[in-house]
Amino acid sequence: MIPSVSSPAAAAAGGVTSGAVRTAVGAVIRVALVEDDDWMRDSLVSQINAGPHFQCVGHYRTGEDALRQLVAARPDVVLMDINLPRMSGIECVRRLKELLPEVNVLMLTVYEESDRIFDSLKAGANGYLLKRAPRQELMEAIAHVHADGSPMTGSIARKVVHYFKQLGQAPRELETLSPREREILERLGEGAAYKEIAETLGLSLDTIRMHIRGIYRKLHVHSRGEVVAKYLRR
C-alpha cells in the first residue's frame, strides 16, 4: 500500500485485524502530526494519546512549523496531511526525510488520490491513511508502519512498474528492480493479495513484505537522484 488500513490495501497486505500489529511490551511509539484543520488535528491528537503505547510528541499546522521543530521532537512516526497550505505535504516529506532519514511517514488524505499518493511515496513517505479511518485502524496503521510495514495497493504497484520502465536509460549505477521484485509488483498490479502471492511463489509473508520494503527504498533513491539530476541540468 501504500498503507491505507481502511482501504483495499488492507486486503492486499493480507488483512489487518485487531491486534495484528503489536508494540513491544512497555514500548511507546512517538507520533507527530502535521494537519492544518484544527478540529481534525485535535481529534487525532486525542486518539493518539488515548492509547497506552502511543504518545503525540508534537502537532503542527503547517509544514514550515513542522520542519522547524520535528528534529527536536524525534518522532518515530509522522502523520502528514497531503494537502497542506503553502508548502505541500509532499514537499514537507521530501525535506523531512533529509533531516530525519529514519522517520516513518504516513500521509493523511480524504480520498485515495493515487497520483498524489505516489508522488508522496517518491518523496519518501511509507504509506497513507484515510482521514475517515476509525481509531482502531489509525492505531494499527501507526504500529504497522513503525514495525517497518509498507503495504502497497495494486494501483500503486502498476505506477511503480511504469516508473521503473521509464528508467531504462538511467545511469547504470542506479539500482533496478530484481526479477523477484518485478514479479511481485506485477502480481500486485493484477490485484493479488500478499497472502496469495506468497502461496503462489512459495514464499513467506515476511519475505513478500521484505521485497516491498526494498522496492520502496529503490523508489526513494531513484526519486532523490531525479531531483539532483534536474538541478544539475538547470
Give an overview of the whole structure.
This protein has 234 residues and is α/β, with parallel strands linked by helices. The protein has ten helices and five strands, in the order αβαβαβαβαβααααα. Strands 2-1-3-4-5 form a five-stranded parallel sheet, with helices on both faces. Helix 5 links the parallel strand 4 and strand 5. The longest helix is centred in the C-terminal third of the chain and has 28 residues. The N terminus and C terminus are likely disordered.
What is the name of the CATH superfamily of the largest domain? Answer: Response regulator
Termini distance? 34 Å
Q: What percentage of residues falls in helices of 4 or more residues?
A: 40-55%
Radius of gyration, in Å, reads 17 Å
Query: Beta-strand percentage?
Result: 5-15%
Largest sheet: 5 strands, parallel
Question: Secondary-structure element order, as H and E?
Answer: HEHEHEHEHEHHHHH
Spatial strand arrangement across the major sheet: 2-1-3-4-5
Secondary structure class reads: alpha/beta
Number of domains: 2
Q: Architecture of the largest domain in CATH? A: 3-Layer(aba) Sandwich
Number of strands: 5
The first-level CATH class of the largest domain is given as Alpha Beta
From the spread of the alpha carbons, the general shape counts as globular
The CATH topology name of the largest domain reads Rossmann fold
Helix count equals 10
Overall mean confidence score, pLDDT: 78
Unreliable runs: 1-22, 227-234
